[in-house]
Amino acid sequence: MLSLPPGVRVFVATTPLDMRGSFDAMAGRVRRLGLEPTDGSLYLFYSRRRTLVAVLYFDGTGWCLFRKRLEVGTFQLPEVPDGVDRLAVDGRVLASILDGIDLRAPCRRWYGREHARAS
Predict the structure, then answer these.
(1) φ, ψ for residue 92 (rounded to 5)?
(2) Which residue of 11, 76, 81, 84 pairs with 102 in a disulfide if CB–CB is 3.0 to 4.6 A?
(3) pLDDT under 70: residue ranges of the chain
(4) Looking at residue 73, what DSSP letter applies?
């Protein structure tokens, strides 16, 4: 369960990001979106295949980075209107994205694993 302080702002970049970049590359991407990366907001980026997401945050003393990779499936993002380069979402939507919930059809996607049979 993700717990965020009340009033924290969350922004989702709507175009994929090369996840090999550094903290500074992600902060530069935030600035190109017209936002200030050191304002205490959370910034979510996703890879081209949407199997990896990164959340960038500046806590006042340094950069924090949270990454999550799905073993099966892809991260589902909110509907993006044409011509929009970022979306503002709340903490519940961020938690839903990170939990693998499809925001278009709200249900958790569970992936079963095949267990090795004991001989």
Answers:
(1) -65, -40
(2) 76
(3) 1-2, 105-119
(4) S
pLDDT in tens, 49-67: 999 999 999 988 999 999 9
Which residues contact residue 56 at a Cβ distance below 8 angstroms, ignoring those fewer than 6 apart? 23, 26, 27, 30, 37, 42, 43, 45, 63, 64, 65
The amino acid at residue 111 is: Y
pTM for the full predicted model? 0.82
What one-character-per-residue DSSP string does 8-62 give? --EEEESS---TT--HHHHHHHHHHTT--TTSS-EEEEE-TTSSEEEEEEE-SSS
Which residue type does 60 have?
A: G
